[in-house]
Specification:
This protein has 700 residues and is an alpha/beta fold.
């Protein structure tokens, strides 16, 4: 059943999807153990001076990380009359089911440790204010015998444990409650080579604990170091309330036998900090284990890159899945596709003869059925099943050409405004090779609008290497992450996948969508702005997602907006717009203006949703800014862009429908010739919007 389900209201709280920031480090120390206290003070002082995290905070004019000692409870505090005894009774009543397991009955020390951790969690949870800090402020909790071990690796490979832990945390989904990064090395030995063992693998660095078995709990035992946020601390306490008083590290683990209120609990694949420094006589074994693990990681990364490069040559350069040769394509196409994959200089000279032979073979075939002819005519020759896909815009040669052209400076041009009957409007849509039904649907809709349908092939994000930034930096999609990745933000989508790899699939889908649009805008920028023969007239580009549903008067209303909306807002201001988000759904904030029966609003991070980039209008003169923005900013869901970029308006004339509006209780009206099953399944998250109780499917 676990873990806990995030309520929609929680996702709307300020800061829910923002980057986490480390605020304070607590270390727990008993009053009698001054030796460990002095050592921790020395080690933490050194860490504060050396960590890059403090440097980043200074650059952002934020306060540096604080650290402080937390006095551990002792058995005397529980039995001796006084304030602590009363407080212990209160904590036991509030955050346990009132029962003690056998070890807690026999040892008051276990109860004291439980009380220490619970009281500290309560203090952190008290910082919940329903503001941004509930989700952004991170607190580390350490035991006083941990070791920040760098072993004997060379200086450039030594780890900054604070930066490393925060790096791992930054890649977690936004709903995480607890991240454990210090635990027994004995636990690690139960999971060879840094695997996740019986838990769920999340990414290259972390595992998710959910419905843990009795044996599985020993794979992550120990609370040497973990991180929480105020809201996460509150969720942990809520879970502890259903558990007995016991060893607190075991109590926090989301066990299968207690699924109610399970926290969203992650841990690092290998400890970032350790339980005790290795003894001198065992140092060689410790170092060797670390070296072996590093070697295994490097070997795994190398193998992964080789596999990705092999796939990229076949899928990115030739842009034709191997399955094409088995899907019953005519012999002519089979011959050409096979030749593309295996062509040599000698074979190239024979290509013309081979084509003639296959033409003769094709001539002997019976004519195609009438319904197939109709579909081929409607799709056009370039989209016909009897022809191969268009050359890939993601091939190495195509991308290299784009990059070379983009080194040029954009010309200073005052573009002339359009006049009635002379609006230059072009339509593009992003579409995966496998989404043929969607391709047919959007192509036919655009042709009914008297618009040529320009298909831009969607990027396929690397599956194995998708969240490893080092690996991605050497992958065919490295140009799409030049500004970084907002990992918490890309982990959510309107249609959540129920598959085992749900979060990973969503992340790959969101990143691929970002990359597809980035490359499309770069292509338009090179061809429409930088080209020597580029027109000096203002042009307009419509960019669609391939599941959009257009109303009959779509083009007419768009041209009316371009010609007649003068940018005047209700408050007297005039805005010079560069781009329009057409028909977003969800809360679209306050009305700023109204035009042609459609409300106009100004997207903002402070207020509103503005979901959906299924229909996007962009001026040619705005393309340089869009391209630069994509290059400099972290990858995010593309419908977040209007809330973060200036000169983008949202207009809601109800002329472009997104199937995901069903999730919010809306309805869609697809044309009869569109395959509804294809429209209803998200190509980003892999889930179907028809899972919603509010499903409404009309027809037109």
């Amino acid at each position: 059943m676990g873990p806990r389900k995030v309520k929609f209201e929680e996702t709307k709280e300020p800061g829910y999807l923002d980057e986490p920031q480390l605020r304070q480090i607590y270390y727990i120390n008993t009053p009698a153990d001054k030796g460990n206290m002095d050592k921790m003070e020395e080690k933490l002082t050194a860490s504060m001076h050396s960590t890059k995290v403090n440097y980043y905070l200074k650059m952002q004019n934020q306060s540096e990380i604080q650290y402080s000692r937390v006095g551990a409870w002792t058995p005397k505090d529980i039995t001796k009359k006084g304030t602590k005894k009363k407080d212990s009774e209160r904590l036991l009543a509030m955050y346990s089911n009132g029962e003690f397991d056998s070890s807690a009955v026999q040892s008051e020390k276990i109860v004291a440790v439980w009380l220490t951790q619970v009281k500290l969690l309560e203090d952190i949870a008290s910082k919940v204010t329903h503001n941004k800090s509930d989700h952004t402020d991170v607190y580390f909790i350490l035991e006083d015998d941990v070791a920040f071990v760098h072993d004997n690796r060379e200086k450039e490979k030594k780890t900054d444990w604070i930066e490393q832990a925060m790096c791992h945390i930054s890649k977690l989904p936004a709903d995480w409650d607890m991240y454990k990064f210090g635990y027994w090395t004995e636990s690690l030995q139960r999971r060879p080579q840094g695997s996740c063992g019986s838990s769920k693998a999340f990414n290259e660095w972390s595992c998710q604990q959910r419905d843990v078995t009795t044996d599985g709990q020993w794979e992550i035992m120990g609370n040497q170091a973990y991180a929480v946020r105020p809201q996460g601390a509150a969720n942990l306490l809520k879970y502890l309330k259903s558990k007995m008083v016991m060893d607190v590290d075991g109590a926090m683990v989301p066990m299968a036998w207690q699924p109610i209120n399970q926290p969203v609990y992650y841990n690092s694949r290998v400890p970032i900090v350790w339980h005790h420094a290795p003894h001198t006589h065992n140092l060689y074994n410790f170092v060797q284990r670390r070296v072996n693990f590093d070697a295994w990681e490097k070997e795994k990364e190398t193998a992964l890159l080789q596999k990705e490069n092999k796939e990229s040559k076949e899928e990115w350069l030739w842009d034709t899945p191997a399955l094409d040769l088995k899907e019953g394509k005519p012999k002519k196409v089979k011959s050409v596709l096979k030749k593309l994959r295996t062509k040599t200089t000698e074979e190239a000279s024979k290509e013309e003869d081979t084509t003639k032979e296959t033409d003769a073979e094709s001539a002997e075939k019976p004519p195609a059925p009438a319904d197939q002819k109709v579909q081929e005519e409607e799709l056009g020759e370039e989209e016909s099943p009897a022809h191969g896909p268009e050359p890939s815009p993601h091939s190495e040669l195509a991308l290299q050409k784009i990059r070379e052209e983009m080194k040029k400076e954009a010309p200073a041009v005052n573009y002339t405004a359009p006049t009635i009957g002379k609006v230059h409007l072009e339509a593009y849509f992003v579409n995966m090779n496998t989404s043929k039904k969607r391709r047919y649907c959007i192509t036919r809709q655009l042709r009914e609008q008297n618009m040529e349908a320009h298909r831009f092939e969607a990027v396929t994000w690397p599956k194995k290497c998708y969240s490893d930034m080092k690996c991605l930096a050497r992958s065919p999609v490295n140009d799409c992450i030049t500004g970084g990745v907002a990992w918490p933000g890309i982990s959510t989508h309107g249609t959540e996948s129920s598959a085992e790899d749900g979060v990973g699939k969503t992340q790959r889908g969101v990143l691929a969508n970002w990359c597809s649009h980035k490359r499309l805008f770069e292509k338009l920028y090179v061809e429409k702005v930088l080209a020597k023969n580029a027109s000096t007239e203002e042009e307009y580009f419509l960019v669609f997602e391939d599941d959009v549903i257009l109303h009959k008067d779509f083009r007419q209303r768009i041209e009316n907006f371009i010609l007649n909306f003068n940018g005047e807002l209700q408050d007297g201001r005039t805005i010079k717009w560069g781009s329009i988000q057409i028909d977003p759904f969800g809360n679209t904030g306050k009305q700023a203006a109204k035009f042609d029966r459609g409300l106009i609003s100004l997207p903002s991070k402070a207020d509103g949703d503005w979901f959906g980039m299924h229909a996007w209008l962009i001026k040619k003169s705005f393309l340089p800014k869009v391209v630069k923005w994509f290059q400099e900013h972290k990858a995010i869901p593309i419908d977040w862009i209007p809330k973060r970029m200036n000169q983008i308006l949202a207009w809601k004339p109800h002329i472009a429908e997104n199937p995901e509006v069903i999730q919010a209780g809306g309805a869609i009206h697809p044309p009869g010739y569109c395959a509804k099953d294809a429209l209803m399944k998200s190509t980003i998250a892999g889930a179907s919007v028809t899972n919603s109780k509010a499903t409404k499917l009309g027809a037109r």
